[in-house]
């Protein structure tokens, strides 16, 4: 706010002086200096940069020698550190679980959502796109976030309740979201968008053939068309190549999983590029997680700081491991992961636009940690660390035309991840989190977090 806006011209001098003093006190100006910048647009890292943030917005960024620190600004020397935009996870579900117990009816509320958004932020994930399993509480949370702006958690963008074909795959128990006819699909999209959804989600799958039907074209087409008529993008859960092909033909805007039944055809790649269909989430961490009886990282501090000891114990229980190993589809997951990884690599090489998304939030798929695992799996599948980071920041923001986030540029929110080591040299360095900023405010990082225990029970952060 400019000072002149605070009071009409002509106030008595003392009031103007007082008011100017208040305005000065209110403007919080911070300068971060001498870091290496990873801008979120894919530029090679730029050394010795500085930036100025005023009231949570970036007002200057550039070579350190050219940035003028405003008088009275707080300055922080970040020589040796790396500054990048906060990560955006383009596929999450909020408020579904307590520990690893998943139950929408029992656990979904504003408090649980906000707690999970804080955990995402602690991991440097400063925005999330939530994918079709939200009750109406999400709209209140998001309205508050957008009114306040300078929030103390990750920002959320929602697809509300996604569209499920009655009796087929998708959604969560306890949330009414299935449709049987094209008219019901249209009405549902209209109703959901009227509540404030940022985009529209639909599911096309049959759980390895367990379910009789996948959503037919006669439902997916009007779902996508109605979203477009209302100015929203439509994104799909897919598993099968033939559904991906059909949905591209229906002008879907993005896929929220990879094709997992086979290798992608050149024809699909060509049509995705021609119609600008984005592979916005490949959820490799989701597919990988299903291949384990016991997640291989449960004792890593970067993971275990974010979950209660009771949750670790539940993950380690022999009964659970036995149950997973004897699950009906357990043997199918390695192939699904291989296909997903190979197809992601193929798409990236072919020039399909891709983002980053994990499908974290449902049981045993952990907020925040999975974003770092996803980046690692993307690099293993064939992109460079810089490409993976660009997907997870600038590209994801562009998908929803979220203009205030995703890159480190003048005018954007200062949603920043400060790292002690170079993530473009080794993608696992995204875990070397030094500071997380949301709108210029330092939030507790995962290295300052110790869920379910006294604050000092998790020990010192590694250097
Ligand atoms: Zn999902």
From TrEMBL:
The UniProt record lists the keyword Zinc: no
Pfam families, per the entry: Amidohydro_1
Keywords recorded for this protein, A-Z: Signal
Keyword Ribosomal protein set for record: no
InterPro entries named in the record: Amidohydro-rel, Metal-dep_hydrolase_composite, Metal_Hydrolase, Metallo-dep_Hydrolase
Every Amidohydrolase-related domain range: 82-441
Leader sequence residues: 1-27
Name of the protein described by the UniProt record: Amidohydrolase family protein
Organism: Sphingomonas qomolangmaensis
């Amino acid at each position: 706010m400019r000072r002149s806006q605070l009071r009409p011209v002509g106030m008595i001098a003392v009031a103007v002086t007082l008011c100017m003093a208040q305005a000065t006190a209110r403007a919080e100006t911070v300068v971060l200096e001498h870091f290496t910048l990873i801008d979120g647009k894919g530029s090679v890292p730029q050394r010795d940069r500085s930036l100025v943030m005023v009231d949570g917005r970036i007002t200057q960024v550039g070579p350190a020698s050219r940035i003028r620190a405003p008088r009275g600004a707080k300055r922080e020397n970040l020589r040796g550190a790396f500054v990048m935009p906060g990560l955006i996870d383009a596929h999450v579900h909020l408020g579904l679980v307590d520990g690893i117990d998943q139950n929408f009816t029992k656990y979904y509320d504003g408090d649980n959502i906000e707690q999970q958004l804080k955990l995402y932020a602690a991991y440097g994930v400063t925005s999330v796109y939530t994918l079709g399993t939200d009750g109406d509480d999400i709209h209140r949370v998001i309205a508050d976030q957008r009114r306040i702006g300078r929030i103390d958690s990750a920002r959320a963008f929602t697809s509300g309740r996604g569209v499920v074909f009655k009796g087929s795959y998708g959604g969560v128990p306890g949330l009414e979201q299935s449709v049987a006819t094209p008219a019901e699909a249209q009405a549902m999209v209209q109703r959901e968008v009227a509540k404030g959804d940022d985009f529209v989600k639909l599911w096309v799958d049959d759980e390895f053939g367990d379910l009789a039907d996948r959503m037919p074209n006669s439902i997916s087409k009007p779902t996508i068309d109605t979203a477009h008529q209302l100015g929203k993008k439509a994104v799909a859960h897919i598993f099968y190549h033939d559904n991906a092909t059909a949905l591209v033909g229906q002008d879907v805007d993005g896929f929220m999983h990879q094709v997992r039944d086979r290798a992608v055809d050149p024809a699909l790649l060509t049509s995705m590029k021609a119609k600008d269909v984005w592979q916005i989430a490949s959820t490799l961490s989701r597919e990988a997680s299903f291949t384990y009886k016991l997640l291989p990282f449960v004792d890593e501090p970067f993971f275990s700081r974010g979950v209660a000891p009771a949750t670790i114990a539940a993950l380690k229980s022999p009964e659970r491991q036995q149950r997973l190993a004897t699950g009906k589809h357990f043997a199918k997951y390695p192939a699904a992961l291989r296909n997903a990884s190979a197809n992601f690599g193929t798409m990236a090489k072919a020039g399909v636009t891709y983002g980053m998304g994990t499908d974290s939030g449902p049981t045993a798929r952990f907020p925040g940690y999975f974003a770092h695992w996803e980046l690692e799996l993307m690099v293993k599948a064939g992109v460079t660390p810089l490409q993976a980071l660009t997907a997870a920041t600038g590209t994801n923001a562009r998908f929803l035309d979220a203009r205030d986030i995703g890159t480190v540029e003048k005018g954007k929110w200062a949603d920043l991840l400060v790292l002690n080591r170079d993530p473009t040299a080794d993608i696992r360095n995204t875990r070397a989190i030094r500071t997380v900023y949301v709108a210029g405010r330092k939030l507790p990082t995962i290295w300052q977090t110790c869920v379910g225990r006294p604050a000092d029970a998790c020990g010192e952060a590694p250097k």
